[in-house]
Amino acid sequence: MTHTYHISGMTCGSCEATVKSRLLMHPDVLEVEVSRENQTAVVTMDTHVTVNELQQALGGSESKYTIEAQGHSEMQEQTKSWFKTYRPILLIFGYITAVTVLIQFVQAEWNFMQWMTHFMAGFFLVFSFFKLLNLKGFAESYAMYDVIAKRWNGWGYVYAFIELGLGLAYLTDIYPLAVNAITFVVMSISLLGVLQSVLNKRAIQCACLGAVFDLPMSTVTIIEDALMIAMSAVTILIML
Fold first, then answer.
1. For residue 200, which of 217, 183, 175 has the smallest C-alpha distance?
2. Taking the chain, what is the end-to-end CA distance rounded to the nearest angstrom?
3. What is the pLDDT of residues 133-182, one digit of tens each?
4. What global pTM score does this model have?
5. Cα–Cα distance, 71 to 42 (Å, whole number)
6. N or C: which end of the chain has fewer CB within 10 A?
7. pLDDT (tens digit, 9 = 90+) per residue, 199-232?
């Protein structure tokens, strides 16, 4: 994608070169054309880069150069970029939700507990599948932020099979109380590492879909883990 920005503060040819070189230092910026006469920069990027990020590349708020969006809405671009980034995980959740809802529609009446069980089965089976496609890659990515995997690299390998086992257990509905208790504990531990990374604003890859998709760690990952924790907790409370 290519966007045009207004750049203030450029007074000479050296300024053009400085602005261009600084913007090109951003990893997602592919090409930059700067015009001192028009006070503009035409930036071609791999994925949308926010104005704040571009300003930081220019030296932050203390820089003599100020960049502003020109001819496009930053909010719309960020929204489109967000959906493009998280499209794989949104599609997966959409498919799982649609399939499990359809299962309930053919039943005589809606069974909320059964729907949650089927949803969690689909979640763990699908997510473990992507982890097992590149088990080593997942384990290495997971070790970057998970509280257990940081201390023991083998946990990433074990975790993928735990998810697979949980998916099969939910699908067959065996030992539901024990299975939900395990889910609650395992996902809570996983959430700790995710929270630490997001709150510390660490720019690392989320390993939720293994090493197949390059998804950044964000609040989406928190919601994903928290949803499984909430569902398992609700099931446990209903069963007790």
1. 217
2. 54
3. 999 999 998 898 889 999 998 999 999 999 999 999 999 999 999 999 99
4. 0.74
5. 11
6. C
7. 776 666 777 777 667 777 677 788 888 999 999 9
How would CATH label the architecture of 2-80? 2-Layer Sandwich (3.30)
**Residues recorded for the chain:** 240
Within 10 Å of residue 37's Cβ, how many Cβ atoms?
7
Asked if 49 and 26 count as a contact pair (C-beta separation under 8 A), the reply is yes
Q: Are 20 and 31 in contact (CB under 8 A)?
A: no
Distance CA 186, CA 153 (A): 16
The rounded distance, in Å, linking the Cα atoms of 174 and 52 is 51
Contact 238, 189 (CB under 8 A): no
- Of 102, 100, 127, which Cα lies nearest the Cα of 116? 100
Write out the two tokens for 159: 């975790």
| Cross-strand pairs, 66 | 8
